[in-house]
Structure formats: C-alpha cells, structure tokens
Design a protein that fits this description.
Layout: E1 10-13, E2 24-26, E3 43-47, E4 52-54, E5 58-60, E6 62-66, E7 78-82, E8 88-90, E9 95-98, E10 102-110, E11 113-122, E12 137-141, E13 144-148, E14 152-154, E15 156-160, E16 166-167, E17 173-176, E18 181-183, E19 188-191, E20 195-203, E21 206-215, E22 221-225, E23 230-232, E24 236-238, E25 240-244, E26 250-251, E27 257-260, E28 266-269, E29 272-275, E30 279-287, E31 290-299, H1 306-330, H2 333-339, H3 345-355, E32 360-368, E33 374-375, E34 380-392, E35 398-411, E36 414-422
Parallel strand pairs: 4-11, 13-21, 23-31
Antiparallel strand pairs: 1-3, 2-7, 3-6, 5-9, 7-10, 8-9, 10-11, 12-15, 14-19, 15-16, 17-20, 18-19, 20-21, 22-25, 24-29, 25-26, 27-30, 28-29, 30-31, 32-34, 33-34, 34-35, 35-36
Length: 423
C-alpha cells in the first residue's frame, strides 16, 4: 500500500494506516499528566514549512497527536519513517536529513494513526545536476511465496540499468491486488486472510510483481466435548470438535471428518452419534491431519412393549403439534422455539417477522385435518393443516390454509418436532 501524496504544507490522516515494520521510535518532548485514563489517539498532524529541500539540509520535524475532542496528546511517542531512506531519512528525534535528489514520503505514526508528507530533495545550490540513469529492468525477490495468515515477509525490488548494473536509492511504490495481503511502503507484506495476491513494485515507469498465496493458520490440535460415558440404543448425542492453532487459539470453519470404529454399535455423522446396538465404539474426528477420539458405551434400552411404545409416540407427536399451535397463538418466540427445537435460523426469522409485526393486531392459528402419524424406530411423520387468521390494522381479516408435514425424532426419550415443511 503506497502512502497517500500529501499537500505541500501539511497532512492530517483521519483514518488509521498500517505503519511500516521498520519504523523508528522517538519520544515527544512534552507530557501531560492527568488523573483520567489516557485518551486514544484519533488523528496525527504533520506540519512542514516547505516541501523542497536541498541535499545536505537538516530540518527538525514536528508532529502532533490529537484525541477525538481535539485535545493535543503531547506525551505520546512518534514513530518516524521514510519511503526512500537513501533520498531522505528521519532520525530518532525527528530530524529530517536530505541526502540525495529524489522524491520521498515522510511518515509520522502515533499508536496506529499516521500522517504523511511528500517532499522533494533537489541538488544544493552550486552542485552540478547529474543525469539520472534510467531504470531498464526490474524484478521482485522472491517472485512467489506461500504465507500463513498473520505471518510477514520482506520483499525486495531489484532495479538495473541497461548494462545490468544494479541501481540503488530509487523511489519504489508497492501495491497489492487483494485484501488477502497488505503491503507497506518498504516492501514488507502481511498475510491478512486466505487467498492469492499479486504484489507489484513500480519505479520510474517499470514494474515487477510477486505472487503471494495465503493459507489459513494450520490446525495444531483438536478438542472434543459432549461425549457421554453411556448411550442408550436409539438415543443420540451431539459431539463438538474444536480446532486450535499452535498457540491454543480457536480456529473457526475448519472441515472435519467423523468416523466410528464400529458402526454396528454407534454411527456418527457431522458429530451426531446414534446408538445402534449394545457395545463400545470409538468415535474419532480429524481435521487437517490432527485427530482426537472419544469412547462411547452403548447400552440396551429397557424392555418395552412395541405397541405401548408406538402409542406413546403417537401421543407425544399429537401433543407436540398442539404445543406448536399454542405457541403460535401466544406470539412468543421463546415458547415457539421450545415447541419446535429443530427450527432453522431462516424459519425463526420468518416466524419472528410475522408474529412481531406491529400492524398485525390479531393472529389466530387453528389446527385442522390432522392425519394419523407414521411411526418408525427413529422418526415419526404427521401431516396436518393450519388455518391462519391474520388481521392487520385497518384491513379485513385474511385467512390462509397451509398444509404441513411435521417430522419428529426421539431425543432423550421424548419425541420432538425437528422439521416442518409445507406440502
């Protein structure tokens, strides 16, 4: 990222810009002591009396950090840097030293806030002006590199004249084609996010680039939670895998692969474990070559009468649909989510918009035409029809009839509504 070109007199940077890693620290000369917490730096002002300097000149620079309310923060440290130290550099105490003809950007940074000024160094009075040798070829070293998110690397631009001789102290502008990689004025790059970026260095009409591929921070370890010591046949439990980097930091959105050592005893899909038959199975989860396991013992359920179990399922499915309708009529989303625990975020958003609509003065849901449920070992289905009466302010009552298919699954011995679809 090239620093912006500043006006000749001064510049004020209202938004933070990343400071080059090779910045130099220099304390300010004033300090303010108050009893209140330190104020955050909101902007930095860099004032220059002129924008042109002769070779050999020195000038003490001044930059002021200010809080959002305009209060000067005179006790803050200023980091000085130059985009072309061979043309002009800034010492630790903020003294600008003009070294050779050329254009350069001076940067003052305080706690992440920066201001810049563009200056030109010209030959001293009486000093002969030497014709600049043009840049004939340019390359970036390295021209390709892989990086992990959060890591940095220094790129170098190599400039040569027509005879192949290397040229030094030329002004170089760095840019990045993607937000995946940030580039500083001195060629230092920072891997911000996964992706590919082309980092380009330009100087005097010539340019060269490097392709940087950024990969996510690798998984160093996996944690597994939610595994019970025992699980009844037919019951299910959700296991949760957490990926961490080498420093223990959580890593989100990583692909995982689940496996059971004995699918006849317990199956697993996406972390959901279902007990199939008595025995012991080891559930393993793997991500990017790292894995962890949990051992689960599946025990047989107590003997039940199939007819009684089916009757209990039919009763619970009917009560579940009735609870869903009652929750709709209450217009209470918490109660609705309790009656319909399998509700998706999209469904929750749609129901919430309808039930919380201020212009909806009256809402009534009536259960109609409920069919007998179909009961299986691990699922149950029932089709039913709802009559919805909606009265909006100033409008006649609108009646809708919607047919639904409710899918129930056993959870901890109770049949719960896990899916609802219109027919």
């Amino acid at each position: 990222m090239s620093p912006p070109v500043a006006p000749a007199e001064s510049t004020v940077a209202e938004t933070p810009t990343p400071a080059p890693p090779a910045a130099v620290n220099a304390p300010t000369t004033d300090s303010v002591t108050t009893g209140s917490p330190p104020k955050a730096v909101d902007r930095v002002t860099l004032a220059l009396s002129r924008s042109s300097f002769q070779v050999g000149e020195n000038l003490k620079l001044s930059a002021v950090a200010e809080a959002a309310d305009g209060t000067p923060l005179l006790d803050r440290r200023i980091e000085w840097s130059s985009s072309a130290p061979g043309v002009a550099r800034v010492t630790e105490n903020g003294t600008l030293q003009a070294l050779r003809p050329g254009k350069v950007t001076i940067i003052a940074t305080v706690e992440g806030r920066s201001a810049t000024a563009r200056i030109e160094v010209v030959p001293a009075v009486g000093q002969p002006t030497l014709a600049s040798i043009p840049v004939a070829a340019m390359s970036v070293v390295p021209d390709a590199a892989p990086l992990a998110v959060g890591s940095t690397m220094a790129l170098s631009a190599v400039l040569r004249d027509g005879s192949g001789k290397r040229l030094e102290d030329r002004t170089i502008t760095w840019t990045s084609s993607s937000s995946a990689v940030s580039v500083f004025p001195n060629g230092q790059i920072l891997a911000v996010g996964p992706g590919t970026a082309v980092v380009t260095a330009s100087s005097e009409g010539r340019s060269a680039s490097a392709t940087i591929t950024v990969s996510p921070v690798p998984v160093a370890s996996l944690g597994l939670t939610g595994a019970p010591s025992d699980l009844n046949v037919g019951d299910s439990v959700r296991l949760n895998a957490a990926a961490h980097d080498a420093k223990g930091g959580a890593l989100a959105n990583r692909q995982t692969t689940w496996e059971s050592s004995d699918p006849n005893v317990a199956t697993v899909s996406g972390g959901l474990v279902i007990g199939r038959s008595p025995g012991t199975a080891t559930i393993s989860v793997t991500s990017e070559g790292k894995s962890t396991t949990a051992k689960i013992r599946v025990t047989g359920p107590p003997p039940v009468d199939p007819a009684a179990e089916k009757a209990r399922a039919v009763d619970q499915v009917g009560k579940g649909i009735a609870a869903f309708v009652a929750a709709l009529n209450s217009r209470d989303m918490a109660r609705l989510k309790q009656a319909y625990p399998g509700m998706t975020p999209a469904e929750e958003s749609d129901w919430s918009k309808l039930l919380n609509e201020k212009s909806l003065t009256k809402f009534e849901a009536v259960l109609e035409d409920a069919e007998a449920p179909t009961i299986e070992a691990t699922s149950a289905e029932e089709q039913f029809q709802l009559r919805l009466a909606l009265t909006y302010s100033g409008l006649p009552t609108e009646t809708q009839r919607i047919r639904y298919l409710g899918i129930f699954r056993p959870d901890g011995g109770t049949w719960k509504l896990m899916r609802l679809s219109q027919r």
